[in-house]
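Supplementary Note 2. Why include the ligand at all?

Several targets in our set were suspected to adopt different conformations when bound, so apo predictions alone were not considered sufficient. For every target with a known small-molecule partner we therefore ran a joint prediction. The input for iron/sulfur cluster is given below.
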Amino acid sequence: MPVSKLAVRRVNAILIEQYGHRQPHARDPLDGLILIILSQATNDVNCDRAFSSLKTAFPTWDLCLAAPLQNVADAIRSGGLANQKAARIQRLLREINEERGDFDLSWMHAASADECETYLSKFHGVGPKTIACVLVFFLGKPAFPVDTHVFRVCKRLGWIRAKSSPDEAHRVLKEIVPDECKLDLHVNFIAHGRVICRAQGNGGPRCGQCPIRRFCEFGKSVKVSELKVAPSSGERARDPDFFVTIKQKKELGEVADS
Ligand code: SF4
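The joint prediction is reproduced in token form.
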């Protein structure tokens, strides 16, 4: 049975109590897109450092596009995967410039979420997660990015099918999660996935300490006697789909394409 909006709102309220409430930070949508590219496979501090360094080295996007790839890579070195990210950034800038004749995406602030999504999905390498991040974080529009943690937690909760692809997860969760919950739930599922609903390879879920267990299909299936002990290989045997595959991680943008 599909999860009710009431249940989603209750899970959201519990996680806000646990991890806090979030506000969007309005900023230039293109800056946001570049930040999301830089955030791949690194932490917030290194991502911010790489973005500041990029803006210092290239005060305009014209200069960044015209620069040798190696110079762009050198500017973002602190964020990791520098060569790959530099190529993605320059390709995105080139495509936007060819499409518009400039780099001004400020019209998106007044556009609908669907208009922004349709526009951004034209560009190479800009997938559903990147688009949803730009919308919800920087434009304050309703969108629900699905990263590895969100994907895993939502599978365990039973909000998406165990065999859902990331694309299917984006489509389903966009409908299931009420607009006013999307930002908080996205950020708080990541926090929850890091410390409580951990990946099987990172210690497994700590269902005995989970404040949303009564809403969780997997959590309700764990015997009370098992809740007190560390997650065992028995849990793994019960739900082999806990692992997010490398293919799925690539689709989620968590793993760099080689
Ligand atoms: S009950 Fe367990 S599986 Fe469910 S969300 Fe909590 S930690 Fe994850």
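The chain has two domains: 5-17+146-251, 29-138. The longest helix spans residues 82-100. Comparable summaries for the other entries are listed in the accompanying table.
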